[in-house]
Each structure stands twice: as C-alpha cells, then as structure tokens.
C-alpha cells in the first residue's frame, strides 16, 4: 500500500458516530497530543495560524452540553423540546468534546495588512477550519473513537454562554463542536452519488 493509499483509507474510515459513550479507550494525553499536532500542522492562509481549539473532558464536557441544552431549549415546549433534548443528550453522553474556533482578531489584523484580500480572508478562514476539523476527526477515528460535527456554537446565545463558561477571548468565533467517545454502535450506512458525476478530468 502506497503512502497515499494509506492516507485515503484513513479518510474513508472516518464516519459520523451519533451513538457514543462516556468512555474512551484512548488516554487523555494521547487525545491532547493529537489535537496539538493537528492545530500545529493544519494549513492556514498566509500561515496566520488563526485556528483555536478547546478540549473538554469528563465533568467539563457535561457542563458544556448542559449549558448548550439549557440555551437551545429555552422557550421550546412539548414534543419539539423533548426531541431536541433527546438529540442533545446523545452528545452529552460522550466522553469529551473538541470545540473549534477561528480567532477573528488574527483575521482582521491580516486584512489590514493586505486589504486587497478583504473578501477572501473570511473564506480562507473557513477553509482552514474545515481542514483542521477533518484532521482531528480522522485522527480520532484511527484511534477507535467515534465523533460527529455539530454547529450549536453558531447560535449567538450559545456562543455567549460558552465564552462565559470557559472564559474564552471574545474574538474567538465558533466554527464547530465535535463530541466524541467510544462508539456505542456502528455508524449507519453511507451512500455515494457516482464520483464520475462529481469529478472532471482534462488532460492533453
């Protein structure tokens, strides 16, 4: 197997796991090391290194999802509230979560230096966020952990609650939250549209 074959096999292995447990077969130190390596080596435009990550485990993870649940379900009633609470309980049941952010101050500072790219830097920041999330997700998968990617931090009220609870800089903008833990069950089947319809090749 070539180096690229091994890498692409890892990419294909990554799946969405909604059913996770509050246990981890991977030591905390290893999870932390994976995240630090991913943050260090994932690319950013102009090498501005704008990505930020918060790792919460155990009781801190419970605190995170408790405040998310309280904030998201505020004002909801009946079956709708029950449904949302049930979905969030699945994430709360995990061992930990990885919170991804982009530091807007870093992006604003580089925009001042290169105003010609004012419209591009937010797009490039999104690219950087996605790359980092994929690197972390795939790495956790290779260690046997299950994870999914959630975006509750996009809600201003949730973002404010998270920033206050964990005393985070106000310039950090949430891009995603990744709850993880040992898988409770296999992921569902994944279907694919024909790749021939999604890739075009032109060569002389």
TrEMBL record:
Q: Where in the cell is it found?
A: Cytoplasm; Nucleus
CDD domains from the entry? Frm2-like
Q: Which UniProt keywords apply?
A: Cytoplasm, Nucleus, Oxidoreductase
List the GO terms this entry assigns under cellular component, sorted alphabetically: cytoplasm; nucleus
**Stated family:** Belongs to the nitroreductase family.
Query: Known InterPro entries for this protein?
Result: Frm2/Hbn1 (IPR033877), Nitroreductase (IPR029479), Nitroreductase-like (IPR000415)
Q: State the protein's name.
A: Putative nitroreductase HBN1
Source organism superkingdom: Eukaryota
List the signal peptide residues: none
Provide the GO MF annotations for this entry. Answer: oxidoreductase activity
- Domain (Nitroreductase) spans 12-181
Annotated GO biological process: cellular response to oxidative stress
